[in-house]
């Protein structure tokens, strides 16, 4: 496993790389594997993920959604968390802002917060990872959801902790992820469905946050130089279906603030 992972960049053109990833995933989830084998498989997967992040994420998220085994889903979620922690020691920047929320007449403060940028190659793939994690919690498959709920919650928490474009509100049970295209996708974790899409920016979304009551969402794009406050609502179709899977987009913020980045300061 170690040789395969360390030489992955050399060997990749000569074998089925996705099959190698799946073999390592199987070793990490096999109950007959020793703790040493499990850790070795996880380390190998992290090394492969660092070399070819797109292949790694595409393979594991596909298997996360389509696997019928709770053990396999749990193993994949643990590998995602392991990967996040192992690559989380790079760039940092400070985000300081005072954001007025119109409806709540409160100030939601993202102040002196150090955001960690673990793996730049992972940023474009965050929506895929988040969607895979949400779909794995399908309430229609109750037994599976209950079996993986604790691990899935921990993995989603890790994404929120390390990646500013991912945000969660416990009371509302909503998860949000910003995209490189400038949209922000909101999920309802109770139904494990896409609830709303905010088409807020024309540049990548740098950070996302919920208001304390979960009613409003703030999106920020450093490249665009704007910070916007939104009040997303599901509308009539959303209330009827419990999800917003098509044409669920809002384009009018309730507040827009210009921002400027100077060095490591945001003002």
UniProtKB/TrEMBL annotation:
One of its GO terms (cellular component) is cytoplasm. InterPro entries: WD40/YVTN_repeat-like_dom_sf, WD40_repeat_dom_sf, WD40_rpt, WDR72-like. WD repeats lie at residues 198-230. Keywords: WD repeat. Pfam families: WD40. It comes from the Eukaryota. This is Uncharacterized protein. It comes from Olpidium bornovanus.
């Amino acid at each position: 496993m170690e040789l395969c992972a360390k030489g992955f960049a050399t060997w990749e053109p000569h074998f089925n790389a996705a099959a190698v990833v799946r073999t390592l995933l199987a070793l990490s989830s096999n109950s007959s594997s020793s703790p040493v084998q499990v850790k070795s498989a996880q380390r190998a997967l992290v090394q492969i993920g660092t070399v070819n992040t797109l292949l790694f994420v595409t393979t594991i998220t596909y298997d996360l959604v389509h696997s019928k085994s709770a053990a396999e889903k749990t193993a994949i979620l643990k590998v995602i968390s392991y990967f996040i922690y192992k690559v989380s020691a790079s760039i940092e920047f400070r985000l300081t802002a005072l954001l007025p929320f119109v409806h709540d007449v409160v100030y939601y403060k993202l102040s002196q917060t150090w955001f960690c940028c673990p793996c730049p190659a992972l940023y474009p793939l965050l929506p895929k990872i988040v969607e895979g994690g949400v779909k794995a919690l399908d309430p229609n498959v109750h037994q599976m959801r209950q079996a993986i709920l604790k691990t899935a919650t921990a993995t989603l928490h890790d994404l929120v902790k390390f990646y500013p474009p991912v945000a969660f509100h416990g009371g509302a049970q909503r998860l949000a992820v910003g995209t490189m295209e400038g949209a922000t996708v909101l999920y309802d974790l109770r139904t494990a469905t896409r609830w709303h899409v905010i088409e807020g920016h024309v540049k990548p979304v740098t950070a996302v946050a919920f208001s304390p009551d979960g009613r409003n969402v703030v999106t920020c794009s450093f490249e665009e130089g704007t910070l916007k406050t939104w009040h997303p609502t599901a509308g009539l179709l959303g209330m009827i279906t419990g999800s917003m899977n098509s044409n669920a987009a809002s384009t009018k913020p309730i507040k827009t603030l210009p921002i400027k980045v100077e060095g490591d300061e945001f003002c």
